[in-house]
Specification:
By secondary structure, the chain is α/β, with parallel strands linked by helices. The chain is built from 13 helices and 27 strands. The strands form 7 sheets. It has a 7-stranded mixed sheet. A 7-stranded mixed sheet has the order 21-18-19-20-14-17-22, with no helix packed on it. A 4-stranded antiparallel sheet has the order 4-5-6-7. Helix 2 (about 45-60) links the parallel strand 1 (about 30-35) and strand 2 (about 60-65). The longest helix has 16 residues, at about 45-60.
C-alpha cells in the first residue's frame, strides 16, 4: 500500500479553516501584503508576502498589494516600483493595488468621528512628555492635562492642525482609551501627527498624517480583508488593532494573526539599517549583491526557485528563531546545479606552454554544457599552444597526495589531452611564471586514446587559451555581517520599546544604535581578474554559469564590451547540511 502523503498545513491555515467552518466572512478569504515603500524588499519580507499570497491561494481567495505610505519623509515612488518588480519576479500576482494615502480622506473622517464621540483629543504635550506620562511595563501611565478637553475644543484644534496653523511636533491627536492599561499600546496612542513634508503621491495636500496603528486596521477593513497576517512584533499591537476596527463600527472585522519573522545570520533585517548601509556607502546600493534585498539577490544570481524553496523549507511558526544563511545558499546551489551550464574560467592564472603543439595551432575541444543533461548540448573551446590554468593547480614540490600538476607529473585537461610537466620558470620573486608541458596527442577526450589513465591519479583540470579568451572581472562576495558579536535587536522588540510615537513602522522603532556597523565584514567583497573561454562572451546580464571546479557565477549589469563582470553566487560545495 502506498504511503499516505500528509497535507501540508500550518497554524494560520488551521485558524482559517476554523473560521470557515464557523461560517465567518461568508466563506471568503482575503489577505493583503502591506509594505511601507521606504526601501527595497528583503528576504524577511519574502516570508511575509509568501504567507499572504499562498494563504489566499490555498483557500481560493485573493491577496491585494497595499502600500502603507503613512510616513512621507522616507517613502519614494522608486521603492513602490521596486516592490512591484520583486513580487512579479517571485511569481506572485496580486488582485489589486491600494495605497493608504488613497484612503486619507476616509481615515480623516474616522478621526473626526472619534473626536465628536469624545474618543480622541488633541494633546499639547511634547514627545518626551508623552513618553514620560505613559508609564512603564510595571507602572500605569497618567492622564495628560489636555485629556479632558471638550469635543468642540478638540475639533477646533484638529482642524487648525490640518490647516497648518501649528508647528510640527507641537500637537498630536491621541485616542482616548486607558492610561492604566497593562498594554502600553492602549495608553492613549497617538493617531495623527503634524508633518510638513511632500508626500510622494498626495503632494502637499496634507500636513497631518495618520499613524500606522490607526491607518492600517482601517485600510484592512475598508478593503474587505478577512485575515490580517503579520509578523510577531505586532502581537502586542493586536488589542489596538481590534479597538480601532470596533470603535469605527466596521461590520466586517478582519482577524489579525501573527507569525514569527525571519532572522538570518550574516546580515541584518532592518530597513533602517539597510538604508544606513546604502547611504553611508558601506555597499554600492540597494541592489548590491551583498544585500539581503531581493534586488541584490537577483543581481547576485539567486534564482526565484531557490528563494521560494528556502521560504518553503523554513515554514511558518509562532516562535522567533534565526536561520543559518547557509540554508539559503544550499537552496541556491541545488537549483543552479540543475539549471546552470558549465564553462571554464581561470581566476588566478599561470601560463602553461604545451611545447609539442605548434605556435599557430588552434584545436577545438568539445565541452558538454551539463554533464548530466545531454539535452543542454555542447560548445567548443579553442586549445592553443599557450593556455592558463589556476595557479593553485601547480605545486613545485608536490606531495604524493597532491593530484594536480607537478614536475614529472600528469593531469588531464578538460575536454582535451593528458599533459606532463617537463619544467617551469620562476620570476624575480620566486613565483612560478611559466610551466612547460608536453601533451599526449593520442589521449584527446572522445578519441580512442582517451581511456589511458593519468599517472599518479592526477585530476582533470579546467583551463583557458592564453591567446583566445575573454578577460573578466570576478567579484567574490561573502557574508556582509559577521555574526561573532551580533546584536540581539534582530528579534522582536520589547513592548515598551515599540510603544513610541516617532514612527509608523514597527520595524523602525527598534533600538537605533549603530553597533551593527562594527560587524560589517571588511572582506565581504574581493575583486580579481581572470580569463574565461570565448563562449562566455555570448552571456547576457543575469545569465548564470558553473565555472568548473570554482563556483557559480552570474553576469553583472556593470559589464562592458571591454570587460565582462561576473558575480560569485555561491561556492560549489559547503560542509553545511540542512536538517531533513
Amino acid at each position: 500500500m502506498a504511503e499516505e502523503v500528509k497535507e501540508k498545513s500550518n497554524f494560520i491555515w488551521e485558524a482559517i479553516k476554523a473560521d470557515l467552518a464557523a461560517g465567518k466572512n461568508d466563506g471568503r478569504v482575503q489577505t493583503r501584503f502591506p509594505p511601507e515603500p521606504n526601501g527595497y524588499l528583503h528576504i524577511g519580507h519574502v516570508k511575509a508576502l509568501a504567507v499572504d499570497f499562498t494563504t489566499a491561494e490555498k483557500f481560493g481567495g485573493i491577496c491585494n498589494l497595499r502600500f502603507d505610505d503613512t510616513n512621507p519623509t522616507k517613502e519614494k515612488e522608486e521603492f513602490v516600483e521596486a516592490i512591484k518588480d520583486d513580487i512579479h519576479w517571485l511569481g506572485f500576482e496580486y488582485a489589486g493595488v491600494y495605497y493608504a494615502s488613497e484612503q486619507y480622506d476616509q481615515i480623516y473622517e474616522f478621526a473626526l468621528d472619534l473626536i465628536r464621540r469624545g474618543l480622541a483629543y488633541v494633546d499639547d504635550l511634547s514627545k518626551e512628555e508623552i513618553r514620560a506620562y505613559r508609564g512603564t511595563l510595571t507602572q500605569p501611565g497618567k492622564n495628560s492635562p489636555y485629556r479632558d478637553r471638550t469635543p468642540e475644543e478638540n475639533m477646533d484644534l484638529f482642524l487648525r492642525m490640518k490647516n497648518g496653523e501649528f508647528p510640527e511636533g507641537s500637537r498630536v491627536l491621541r485616542a482616548k482609551i486607558d492610561m492604566a492599561s497593562p498594554n502600553i499600546n492602549l495608553r492613549d496612542p497617538t493617531i495623527y501627527r503634524i508633518k510638513y513634508c511632500t508626500h510622494h503621491r498626495t503632494g502637499d495636500k496634507w500636513c497631518i498624517y495618520p499613524m500606522y496603528d490607526f491607518a492600517h486596521p482601517i485600510g484592512d477593513a475598508l478593503e474587505g480583508v478577512t485575515h490580517s497576517l503579520c509578523s510577531l512584533e505586532y502581537e502586542i499591537h493586536r488589542p489596538l488593532y481590534d479597538w480601532v476596527v470596533n470603535v469605527c463600527n466596521f461590520e466586517q472585522k478582519p482577524r489579525q494573526i501573527e507569525f514569527a519573522r525571519l532572522n538570518l545570520t550574516g546580515t541584518v533585517m532592518s530597513k533602517r539599517k539597510l538604508r544606513k548601509l546604502v547611504e553611508e556607502g558601506h555597499v554600492a546600493g540597494w541592489d548590491d549583491p551583498r544585500m539581503p534585498t531581493l534586488a541584490g539577490m537577483r543581481r547576485r544570481g539567486y534564482t526565484k526557485a531557490a528563494v521560494r524553496d528556502f521560504i518553503d523549507r523554513i515554514g511558518v511558526s509562532k516562535a522567533d528563531s534565526t536561520v543559518d544563511h547557509r540554508l539559503l545558499e544550499h537552496c541556491v546551489r541545488n537549483d543552479l546545479n540543475e539549471v546552470a551550464p558549465r564553462a571554464m574560467a581561470v581566476l588566478n592564472p599561470v601560463k602553461v606552454v604545451l611545447t609539442n603543439i605548434p605556435e599557430d595551432a588552434v584545436e577545438l575541444c568539445e565541452i558538454e554544457n551539463h554533464p548530466k543533461k545531454p539535452e543542454m548540448g555542447t560548445h567548443t573551446v579553442p586549445l592553443t599552444r599557450e593556455i592558463y590554468i589556476e595557479r593553485e593547480d601547480f605545486m613545485v614540490e608536490g606531495t604524493k597526495k597532491f593530484q594536480r600538476l607537478k614536475p614529472d607529473g600528469e593531469v588531464r585537461l578538460k575536454g582535451a589531452y593528458i599533459i606532463a610537466c617537463t619544467g617551469y620558470d620562476l620570476d624575480e620573486n620566486g613565483e612560478v611564471s611559466c610551466i612547460y608541458c608536453t601533451a599526449d596527442l593520442a589521449t584527446k577526450s572522445g578519441c580512442e586514446g582517451a581511456d589511458r589513465k593519468v599517472k599518479g591519479n592526477g585530476k582533470t583540470l579546467h583551463w583557458v587559451s592564453a591567446t583566445q579568451n575573454m578577460p573578466f572581472e570576478a567579484r567574490l562576495y561573502d557574508v556582509l555581517i559577521l555574526d561573532g558579536d551580533k546584536p540581539s535587536e534582530e528579534s522582536a522588540p520589547a513592548p515598551d520599546v515599540m510603544a513610541t510615537d516617532e514612527s509608523d513602522d514597527a520595524e523602525e522603532t527598534v533600538d537605533s544604535g549603530d553597533d551593527f556597523l562594527r560587524q560589517v565584514n571588511p572582506d565581504s567583497l574581493k575583486v580579481v581578474h581572470g580569463y574565461g573561454e570565448p563562449w562566455l562572451a555570448e552571456a547576457k546580464v543575469g545569465d548564470s554559469f558553473q565555472f568548473m571546479r570554482t563556483a557559480y557565477f552570474c553576469k553583472d549589469k556593470d559589464s562592458t564590451d571591454e570587460m565582462a563582470v561576473f558575480n560569485r553566487v555561491v561556492i560549489l560545495k559547503d560542509s553545511y547540511k540542512p536538517e531533513a
